[in-house]
Description:
By secondary structure, the protein is an all-alpha fold. The chain has a single domain (5-321), classed as Farnesyl Diphosphate Synthase (Orthogonal Bundle), CATH 1.10.600.10. It is built from 14 helices and 2 strands; from the N terminus they run ααααββαααααααααα. A hairpin with a 2-residue loop joins strand 1 and strand 2 (96-97). Helix 4 (63-88) packs parallel to helix 7. The protein is globular. The mean pLDDT is 91.
Amino acid sequence: MFQNFEEYLNYSKPKLDDAFNKQLSLLLGNNDNGLTAFGSVLGGKRIRGCLLFMVGDILGGSFGSALPRAVAVELIHSASLIHDDFVDQDTTRRNLPSVWTVEGSRKAVLLGDLIFASAIAMMSDLSREDGLAVSRAIALVSKGAYTERLDPRMLAKEIETDRFDNKIYGKIISLKTGILFGTACQLGAISAGAGDDLQKSLFEYGLKIGEAYQMADDIVEIKHHLQTRSINKNEMAALTPTLCYFVKETIPYVIPFLSGKMSELDQEGRDFFQTVEKLMEDEIQRRMGSAISIITTDLSGNENIGPMCKAPGELIGMFFKS
Length: 322
C-alpha cells in the first residue's frame, strides 16, 4: 500500500506503458518496431490508468485484475487524442508529429475507431459491467468533442444574438475529460469486486478530479495569452465557452477577437482574463473538495483512503509542474 498517488504512478506507469505498447502492437498486427508512427500517443503521464490502480489497490483488488482495465482506459484516451489532433488539425503532440500527419487522415481516423472498438471488446470479454462502462465512456467522450464550439464566426453570432449557452463549458469538461477519469475510478472499483453503489461513488470521485484537471489545462492557456498579450480568433474560439461560463458579460472582450478585428490584449482585456483565472482557481478547489468529500463519506470505514484524499491536489500540482 503506497502513501500517495505519486508512489502509485512511479510503480505502475512502467508496467502500464509496457502493456499498452504490446496491446497496441497486437491491434496493428505488428511488433513494437511498428509503433514508430504512433510516438505521440505512446507517451503521456498515464494518470487515468494509474488512478485505476490506486482505487483497485485501496479497495483490496490485485494489480493483475486492474492492468487490462487500465490499458483499456489509456487506449480510449489515446484514440480520442488521435481523433482530436486530426479534427483540430494539430500537427504535433508532446513535441512529436501527430498520427494523422504521419499516417494520413484516413488511417488516423480508422485507427481511432479500431482502438475504441477494441477497448470495448477487451472489456466485454472481462464482464458485462466492464463492457458497459467503457462503451458509455466512449459515447460520452465523443459527445463532448462534438459539443465543442470552434468556429469563431458562429460563436460570435450566437453570443451577439443571445443564443449561446453560457453553461456549455461545464458540459464540455465533464464529457471531454471528467467522464474518462470517472470511468477509470469505476473500473478500479470493478477490478476489486466493489458493488454498484461504491462504483457510482468512485465514478463521481474521478469525474470531479477530471473536471478540475481540465480547468487546470485551460488556465495554462489563459496564462499563456496573458504572457504573450495576444490571442487570435481560433484561440479565442477555443476559450470562449470557458470565459462565458465564469463571466456572463463577455461581449466587449470576446467579439472583437472572434471577428478578427483584434488580436492584442490591452490592459482591460488582461484584467478580464485575470478575473476568469482567479474564478477558475476557486472552482478547481471546490471540485477537488467535492471529490475528497465523496471519499471521506463513502469510504469512511476504510483506513487506507489517505492516498485517495491526497490524489486530487497532487494531480493538479503535478499538472502545473509539467
